[in-house]
Amino acid sequence: MSVRTAVVLAAGEGTRLHPLTHNRPKPMLPAANRPVLEYVLDALVEASIERVCLVVGYKRNRVQEHFGPRYRDVPITYVHQKKQLGSGHALLQARESVDGPLLVVNGDRAIEPSIVSDVAGAFERDAGPAVLGVIERPNARQYGAVVLRDGRIERIVEKPDTDEYRLINAGVYAFDSSVFDSIAATPRRDGELQLPDTIAELIDDGDVQGIRTEGLWADATYPWDILTVTQELLARGRVNEPEREAKSRVWISDSARVHDDATLQAPVVIGADCEVGPGAVVGPTTALGHNVTVGSNATVERCVLDADTRVGAGSVLIDCVTGQDVDLGSATACSGGPADVRIESSVFENRRLGAVVADRVQTVGEASFAPGTLVGPNATLHHGAQASGRVAAGAEVVR
Description:
By secondary structure, this protein is of the alpha/beta class. Helices cover 18% and strands 33% of the residues.
């Protein structure tokens, strides 16, 4: 049976990406100036999917208002997961919206159309109840590993304790409609219904085929991953803006204004209505979102600056991620990583990260961020203030 319907799981908050997800869901975070979810939908459309069901939940209006009823002429149906009770529970909400076989993808990972085609094609050839896409990655410990033998998934290793595993679950599946009954029959774990638990039960029955695939697969789990996802997208040229010169890897919107005395270092993308002042240096590996302003003699290197961010004259930002409507006054400084960063109850050592600055943060001037600083929305750093660690939403930091 051919697979022409896809269910996209896009209901999660992404708590490990705080403070960036205080005001929007994880799939709507920017990578190379587009929400991650756009790359997912592009992959589905280009793999000939004809209908999309989007499961939304946390801050769902941000998703629905952005995409509307259609994306690239493919109709979208929205299903609301009112409480985020796991990925299996999310998929179960789509039961009444799906008729026949379905593709299931995570909405928070940028993927290649070929991954979708590989999984759908394997399902159509095998005619079994489930196919799981498998991709090779060196950091299987972060995602959990799968053991593939003779084209079948033998087992899932949730928390590998050695480096011998290289294959991980790509988060792209194809199922027949019986998957909904399987999910409903799966025991809950800590009150949640997780899709991997259902898959583990199907594996025990020998019913899950695995297909090795490759290509773009970029996941943002932690704040610093926004930088690496953008780096991979820029390296692959997955950018919507026009390229200044062929193979230059410098993409500039037609409405952007870049001063003749400014320097753009590839790869870099300058979004619509941006302004880059004289003497400023932007890039490499940098994305300026819509209406970003970089003042004179400022340096912005390996950064992702979201819409309406303003960088004052003489500022230096390295390895930084900002939310929307951030106002960094003149001579703001962040020298970049490495840093030890606390996310929830874990400390991640030696991460290359400057500051993560959430929506509507303001620095008055000559403020500085220590490497690894996480700043909540609506915080203010007064003149000469120094921020480090975690700054709470709405906080005021003084010298």
